[in-house]
Design a protein that fits this description.
The structure holds two protein chains of two kinds.
Chain A: H1 6-13, E1 26-32, E2 37-48, E3 51-62, H2 65-78, H3 83-88, H4 91-98, H5 104-125
Antiparallel strand pairs in A: 1-2, 2-3
Helix pairs in contact in A: 1-2, 2-5, 4-5
Chain B: H1 4-8, E1 24-25, H2 36-47, H3 59-78, E2 87-90, H4 93-107, E3 113-117, H5 126-134, E4 138-142, E5 156-162, H6 174-184, E6 189-193, H7 205-208, E7 212-216, E8 227-231, H8 233-238, E9 249-252, E10 257-259, H9 273-289, H10 291-310, E11 315-318, E12 326-331, H11 336-344, E13 348-349, E14 351-353, H12 358-364, E15 369-373, H13 380-397
Parallel strand pairs in B: 1-13, 3-4, 3-5, 5-6, 6-7
Antiparallel strand pairs in B: 2-8, 7-8, 9-10, 11-12, 12-15, 14-15
Helix pairs in contact in B: 2-9, 3-9, 4-5, 10-13, 11-13
Classes of the chains: A alpha+beta, B alpha/beta.
Chain lengths: 126, 398
Amino acid sequence: MDIYRELILDHYKHPRNFGHLENPDVTQEEGNVTCGDKISMEVQLSTVNSQLSIRDVRFSGEGCAISQASASMLTEKVIGMSIKNIMKLATEDILKMLGTSLAPSRIKCAMLSLEVLQKAIITYGR
Amino acid sequence: MFDPQKIKHDFPIFKRRINGKPIVYLDSTATSLKPRSVIDKENEYYTKYTANIFRGIYTLSEEATAEYEAVRVKVARFIGATNADEVVFTRNTTESINLVAASIGKTLEKGDEVVVSVMEHHSNFVPWQQRAQKKNVTFKVWDPREKLETIITRRTKVLALTAVSNVLGTINPVKKIVRIVKTINPQCIVVVDAAQAIPHMKVDVKEWGADCVAFSSHKMLGPTGVGVLWGKMELLENLSPYQYGGEMISEVYVEKTLFKKPPYKFEAGTPHIAGVIGLGAAIDYLKKLGMDNVRQHEMKIVAYALEQLKLVEGVTIYGPKERCGVIAFTMKGAHAHDIAQILNEDNICIRSGNHCAMPLHTHLGIPATARASFYIYTTKEDVDSLMNGLEKVKNKFL
């Protein structure tokens, strides 16, 4: 399977929701130091149908195509999603979203953005 | 005639095909491949004279002991040491350095200083940093572009120095550095990480003048799990044991224990007997090629690779022109991991990341590099494969 299929390269070269929010409710940054991947997420939350959900999100950072494309695709996926459902997302959801299989050494690249987002939600909860 | 194509035939792994394609191995800086003779020699211990060493009064044990000890002599000769008792077998370079750091660490006192170069592998950086912090002594990082006189003082207890950078390929003038250090402070112990030097060039530890030198078997065609610490006898005699247990003692009483002389006082427990014996075959193989020929071949390959890499659009190369067989580089628009991943589609094996040298990468201001490295079996065709692979990367990312 081609890891670098068109969709992933497109998200890497033209990341969606890349940048900053004016008034984020929470900002979180994490990195894979050994890889040099870094992702920062800024999140705005609101209550929709009595469920706390993501109203808007922006990301910034640098790193490999997998980490950056994964972050870009994730931001598209989670806008409007309840934080309850976001906290349920796991490795298989991210791989499904990317539409590819990855060697164990690359899975951590793919998972970085979700880890940052889930940490942001936990930080907000505190 | 030095013929890497012919040398490849001695390495069974080159028979392997992944997805029908051969292997282009450009990661010998991480570990070297193993020739048939080394694999057979290690196997010989397991099939012909399996026994613990120094213990049995029976033929098998005596054979195993003789084979093991013969390698100690072989190693000593290979690195220019006159006394084989100055050769200590460890697990790897990291353990060799930790052994020295643990022992010297105990003697550090307030006001002492420990110096490491900025291009150290984590294995010759972190052990010193940690000991210095624990003893609350000054820890200094030396950029080799600065004069040594500005950093080494009468209070410098240790200089940890790599002979060859595993990222930049820089060959440090160890002999000259040791001479300057000893002029400033004759008591300063110079600990040389030679993991990237011994496999690739003729080294004479006596000529270097350093106090101890560490290297690994697995980077010089030998088995994994075996390292060497060479140290001046005077230093080894003064170092306290690193681990305690069997084989390293001469007499044990309830109230005290007397230790053996070096090297045995540093070889507690049953060592990696098969691995050490395998290392002997690796040295035989390298000696047959001749270390000067090994170096000549690598110089040719690295010059060719540098020339070719410069032609690839968007590539930045790190390190000097005159170097060992290793090239770290970055490519515009493509992260090192993505480069390595795409090359892997054609079984081209390179390393990506910070190569256990994060302080150096921070110093260079880059999070990660891609690294191709060469050895005796690397051909021009391998380098060409790398260039073709990089074209593929470029087409995807630029």
